C-alpha cells in the first residue's frame, strides 16, 4: 500500500552545506529567485568539513588569505574577519564563521537543514527524484549510531545536486582493533577518528601538565595511524602544544605519507598555490577535459572570408593543443613531464628544502609516489608563525617517533 503522507516538493535539492553547496545555492537563487530550494547536511551545522563539529585545535587552511573565498563576499580585508591577514593561512574557526555569514548574507540560512542524512535517491526520470532522508545525531549517521531510532522523511526534488565533497564517512575507530582481533580490555583510553579530534583533544595543556608533581607531569603516549595532512596536524598538536609522546604509524599497505610542501617554493619564494594555476604548469599535467575546453578552436574560416583577415594566425588554443600533444603523447615529452614532477617538484621543491634525507626518521615521511600522482593527497606546512617547528622538525627532535608497520 502506497504511503499516504504527501511528499515535500522542492525545485532544487542540494546535499552538502559546504563551499560548493552554498555557492551553487547562492547562484541558483540569483538566477531563479522564485524557485524553492533546500540544502541538507548530515553535520549539525553549516560548513561541510569546516563545520563547528569538524574543527580541531590548530586547524588552518592550506591556502593563504585571498585564495580561499567567494568573489562576491571577500574574507581578506573584510572588517568581520580582522584576524585574517595577507600571506597567512586562515584558522579553521574563521572559515566556519565565514561560511555561516555567507549563508546568512545570501539568504540561505533558513533553507539549510542540518542533521539530515540522505540514505537513498530514486530516479523518476523527467519527474525528478524522490530522496529518502533520516535525522541523525552528532555522529552524522555513522556506524556508531546504529541502533538509535531515527526519523525518516521523503522529499521530491525536480533537480538533485550532490555537493558532498571528497571526504568519505569514516568507519568507527574501534572497528580497527576488532578487525585486528586485538585484546583491548586493558586499554581505557579513547579511540577516535580524526573527524572527532576536536571533541577529544584540548587546545592547550591542562593545569596538571604544568605542575611540578612528577606523577601528574607524566606524558601521555599517543598513537596516530595514517599519514595524511590531518594526521600530521594531530601529531604536531600533541607533540608541540601538549607535550605528549607521539608514535606515528604508517601502514605499508596504504598510500604512504602525504605530500607536504612549503607554502612558498623556488629561490624566488613563489606562492605554490598560485604557481600551480599558471598555464605553463597546467601543460605539464594531463587533463581529460582539455579537448573539451569551451575556448577550444573552432574550424578555421575560409581564407577568402573578408570578415576574418587574420584567419592564418594560430590561436593560443592551437598552441595549447600542440604543447599537450608534445608533452603527453611523445616519449621525449613524457620523460620531461616525469622529470619535472620527480626532480623539480618533489626533490627540489620538497625533499631537499625540508631535509627529509638528513634524518632516518624524516626519511620515512618521504612521499612514496612523486607529485604527478598525489592528487588531493597533499598539504602545506601551515603550523604556527615563522620560526615555529614544523612536524618534520618535531620528528628530528625525537618528539614524534615514526614507524612503518601494519596493525595486527
UniProtKB/TrEMBL annotation:
<protein>
    <submittedName>
        <fullName>Putative FAD-binding monooxygenase AlmA</fullName>
    </submittedName>
</protein>
<dbReference type="Pfam" id="PF13450">
    <property type="entry name" value="NAD_binding_8"/>
</dbReference>
<keyword id="KW-0560">Oxidoreductase</keyword>
<dbReference type="InterPro" id="IPR036188">
    <property type="entry name" value="FAD/NAD-bd_sf"/>
</dbReference>
<dbReference type="GO" id="GO:0004497">
    <property type="term" value="F:monooxygenase activity"/>
</dbReference>
<keyword id="KW-0503">Monooxygenase</keyword>
<keyword id="KW-0274">FAD</keyword>
<dbReference type="InterPro" id="IPR050346">
    <property type="entry name" value="FMO-like"/>
</dbReference>
<keyword id="KW-0285">Flavoprotein</keyword>
Amino acid at each position: 500500500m502506497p504511503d499516504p503522507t504527501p511528499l515535500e516538493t522542492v525545485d532544487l535539492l542540494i546535499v552538502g552545506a559546504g563551499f560548493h553547496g552554498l555557492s551553487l545555492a547562492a547562484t541558483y537563487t540569483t538566477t531563479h529567485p522564485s524557485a524553492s530550494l533546500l540544502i541538507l547536511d548530515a553535520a549539525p551545522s553549516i560548513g561541510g568539513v569546516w563545520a563547528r563539529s569538524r574543527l580541531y585545535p590548530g586547524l588552518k587552511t592550506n591556502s593563504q588569505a585571498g585564495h580561499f573565498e567567494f568573489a562576491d563576499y571577500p574574507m581578506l580585508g573584510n572588517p568581520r574577519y580582522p584576524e585574517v591577514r595577507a600571506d597567512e593561512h586562515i584558522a579553521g574557526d574563521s572559515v566556519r564563521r565565514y561560511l555561516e555569514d555567507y549563508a546568512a548574507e545570501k539568504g540561505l540560512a533558513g533553507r539549510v537543514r542540518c542533521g539530515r542524512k540522505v540514505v537513498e535517491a530514486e530516479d523518476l526520470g523527467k519527474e525528478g527524484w524522490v530522496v529518502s532522508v533520516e535525522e541523525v545525531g552528532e555522529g552524522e549517521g555513522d556506524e556508531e549510531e546504529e541502533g538509535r531510532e531515527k526519523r525518516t522523511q521523503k522529499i521530491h526534488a525536480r533537480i538533485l545536486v550532490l555537493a558532498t565533497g571528497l571526504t568519505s564517512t569514516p568507519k568507527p575507530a574501534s572497528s580497527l582493533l576488532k578487525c585486528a582481533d586485538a585484546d583491548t580490555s586493558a586499554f581505557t583510553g579513547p579511540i577516535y577518528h580524526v573527524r572527532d579530534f576536536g571533541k577529544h583533544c584540548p587546545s592547550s595543556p591542562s593545569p596538571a601538565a604544568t605542575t611540578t608533581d612528577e606523577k601528574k607531569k607524566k606524558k601521555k603516549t599517543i598513537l596516530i595511524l595514517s599519514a595524511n595532512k590531518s594526521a600530521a596536524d594531530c601529531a604536531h598538536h600533541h607533540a608541540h602544544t601538549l607535550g605528549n609522546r607521539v608514535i606515528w604509524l604508517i601502514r605499508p599497505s596504504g598510500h604512504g605519507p602525504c605530500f607536504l610542501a612549503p607554502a612558498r617554493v623556488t629561490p624566488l619564494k613563489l606562492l605554490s598555490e598560485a604557481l600551480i594555476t599558471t598555464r605553463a604548469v597546467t601543460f605539464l599535467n594531463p587533463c581529460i577535459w582539455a579537448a573539451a575546453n569551451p575556448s577550444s578552436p573552432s574550424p578555421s574560416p575560409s581564407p577568402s572570408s573578408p570578415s576574418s583577415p587574420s584567419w592564418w594566425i594560430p590561436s593560443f588554443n592551437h598552441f595549447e593543443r600542440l604543447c599537450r600533444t608534445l608533452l603527453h603523447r611523445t616519449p621525449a615529452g613524457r620523460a620531461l613531464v616525469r622529470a619535472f614532477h620527480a626532480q623539480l617538484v618533489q626533490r627540489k621543491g620538497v625533499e631537499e628544502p625540508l631535509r627529509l634525507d638528513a634524518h632516518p626518521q624524516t626519511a620515512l615521511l618521504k612521499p612514496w609516489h612523486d607529485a604527478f600522482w598525489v592528487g588531493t593527497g597533499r598539504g602545506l606546512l601551515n603550523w604556527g608563525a615563522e620560526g615555529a617547528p614544523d612536524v618534520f622538525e618535531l620528528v628530528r627532535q625525537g618528539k614524534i617517533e615514526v614507524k612503518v608497520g601494519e596493525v595486527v
